[in-house]
Design goal:
Structural class: alpha/beta
CATH class of the largest domain: Alpha Beta
Helix content: 25-40%
Number of domains: 4
Distance between the termini: 46 Å
CATH architecture of the largest domain: Alpha-Beta Barrel
Mean pLDDT: 93
Strand order of the largest sheet: 1-2-3-4-5-6-7-8-9
Number of helices: 18
CATH topology of the largest domain: TIM Barrel
Radius of gyration: 24 Å
Strand content: 5-15%
CATH superfamily of the largest domain: Aldolase class I
Amino acid sequence: MTNPDRALAQHQETDEPRTIADLPEAVAGRPALQPLADVPIPAPTKEAVDEDDLVHRDFDDTPFWQRIPAFADVDRGTFLQTSFQLRHGVTGAAELRELVGPLVDEAFLADVERGLAEAPMNVRVTPYLLGLIDWDDPYGDPIRIQFLPVASTRRPDHPRLALDSLHEQEDSPTPGLVHRYPDKALFLPLDVCPVYCRFCTRSYAVGGSTGTVAKDGYKPADRRWQAAFAYLAARPEIEDVVVSGGDAYMLPARRLREILTVLLDIPHIRRVRIATKGPAVMPMKILTDTAWTDTLCALVDAGRARGKEVCLHTHFNCMEEITAISREAMDLLFRRGVTVRNQSVLIRGVNDDADRMANLVRQLSWMNVQPYYVYQHDMVKGVEELRTRLEDSMEIERRVRGVTAGFNTPTFVTDVPGGGGKRDLHSFEFYDEITGVSVYRSPAVDPDKAYLYFDPIGLLPDAGRERWARPAEHARIVKEALLAAGLPGRRVATA
């Protein structure tokens, strides 16, 4: 803590204040409190907090990137330039070796190289993230886990997993547009991102082909965009459009303006959400790419003038991603009237701990980013070691709920395989902790289907692992779950 909170916490540990005047000067000296100097402080009903209880108010303001030998002489002004972040990012094993080779042993670098060869996603990591990784413990670091695969931890994919597990392509009337919910559509104008998350649910299209996955992708082609706009204009039930990708952060300002100008001019579209991982992985763009930020803010204002909402949805997964740069960027957007909401993904070794998730929620709230969703990890190829059991996720939700105000408490959801959309984590019809099968319904999407999510086999009890080890049991496991859910004979949306 670098503010009055630290002084207050330390003061409370040693001496219970009796009046306002007994508080530290940083608090008692505030102009509005000075006339209250003699007011007695009521007896507390809670124990005094210590510094650890306020860790979410700490923001790293050190030149952390200088821990990377190649960036040792890079000053803050240079580091904050978007061009520097894009030019010096890691996009392969050779670049990683060049930048962090002196900090880690050869065995780790070889492990990453093997991991990249097997991964469904290409790698792209910004200098911002590289500087935040704890290279003394790269295997345990939550940022490394998200962006740099290692072969040694990989586990076999679940037998019920598919590349496009959410069936977005089946709900696409034209390439790059997904219409699943009645009044909402997802527009995918491009297929590139500032970084590539290992757990990306669109690994079927985003980030270019790899040695294991051939991808068509969504290039920013005018004809494809025009077809999407024509569909949206012709469907009066669509009120809400998410602009994602890829990542809208990578759209030039003029292209962002082009998309939003068309969407805001369609009379029945009332809400536009710009989805981006950018603030979590390259927050300096908001501070230094003034053309992009000014365009975003102007579009927010233009929407508000028409009675329409334009907001930013971002993706912080852990406190280790957040620095004073993040806070400065979010403060700028807040001052300029941009609503920012956050969507996290539950990832083993990153945020699958109630205290860590609670502190993330508090820190997001502190910098005026509303915690919106926490997703159960999608059934994505090549990252089975990152998924959590549904029961573990529900316990995290139980412990997070109540630590802060309800409007800053995220909803924990499963985006169910097969295209059923987002379901509240607890809203399953049946959940078998032995076989790891949870059964959901999604009446607004398809009232006649059952949607199944499967826990990672490696976390199941012995009895469950033994059943999944026998392929002949797989259909029986599903049939039993449907029967227990009261949905025998129901069509199953397969992943």
